[in-house]
Known about the structure:
By secondary structure, this protein is an alpha/beta fold. The chain has two domains: 2-175 and 341-372, Medium-chain alcohol dehydrogenases, catalytic domain (Quinone Oxidoreductase, Chain A, domain 1), CATH 3.90.180; 181-317, Rossmann fold, CATH 3.40.50.720. Helix content is 29%, strand content 26%. It contains 13 helices and 18 strands. The strands form three sheets. Strands 3, 5, 6, 9, 10, 17 and 18 form a seven-stranded mixed β-sheet that branches. A six-stranded parallel β-sheet has the order 13-12-11-14-15-16, sandwiched between helices.
Amino acid sequence: MRMKAAVLFEQGLPRPYSVSQPLKIIDVELEKPGEGEVLVEIGAAGLCHSDLSAISGKRRRPLPTVVGHEGAGRVVELGSGVRNLSIGDHVVGIFVNSCGRCRFCTDGKVNLCETSWSSRANGTLQSGARRLRFECTELNHYSGLSTYAQFAVVSENSLVAIDKTVPLHVAALFGCSVVTGVGAVVNTAKVAPGRSAAVVGLGGVGLNAMLGLVASGAFPIVAIDLSKEKLELAKSLGATFGILASESGVEPQVKDLTRGGVDFAFEMAGAEAAMSLAYAVTARGGMTVTAGLPDPAKAISIPLAALVSDERRVQGSYMGSCVPLRDIPRFIELYLSGRLPVDRLHSGNIGFGQLNLGFDQLADGQVVRQTLIPN
């Protein structure tokens, strides 16, 4: 099959991306699905900071690759051996598929599956195959999905069937920003009603964490960001307080508002300063959760004595500690009931022609979550 796709041939091109054009919109060849694989017509694909980090070169990826790891679409063809999906199903893509056999899968930590990490590092599907080509060159699969394309061949284990009443441009967000943000609250931290919380960094993942905190009954909730507009959005979504991160005295402000610090602080910006602030505003006995994706070379310093004397906890959260087959249907039910208004984070749809510009807007903090509509 011949189709249009966004291909990254070179990382680290200069901004603005609307000029340097790191994502090349070209026609590529897509093979039919193999055993255990599914052909999906992509309905919508989200623009995420994880993709931005690959474009900028902060996170290395095997090249050339068809980019995109957050998306939703319709099943149009099944490979042999596919048991749990049918043609016509609406599905959400999962950027960490699970093998069900490694030590992490058997421990219930499918988000840490070894098979998925290996195939992603190699730019293949879970089977080790590549189904994408440009002229005589094999193209790599991005997180086993490659959603910036009109179609994608993916492993059955990379898909979750969903309610067909959910618009695909909203459904796409459940594949990354929702599971990561909401999951960090309900799975990683297990926030109980009445517990205080702060979110540092109000991108797509951070605002989903806000939604998760509201749905969990947390109170008070403190939103912290560099953008006044995003603080206003956070308050409209249920944040009790909004604090501009560029102001002086953010830490004492939070402690004054929360009787000495929050029970849970969530770092969602992927930056050293954000993590340091999240740790600083966490109360004694509290938990600091980080789900941002920082530069791998960066680090912060934490006083070891306080970890003991204050019983402090620092916890990473990857993909919201989610079990996708369990959590995505649950989160979608909350959305359909009005308790998780994910659609309010949607910043609009774009086409292939606006994709590079869209990443400029994401890098500048002008949008929360845009979705590419490739067809």
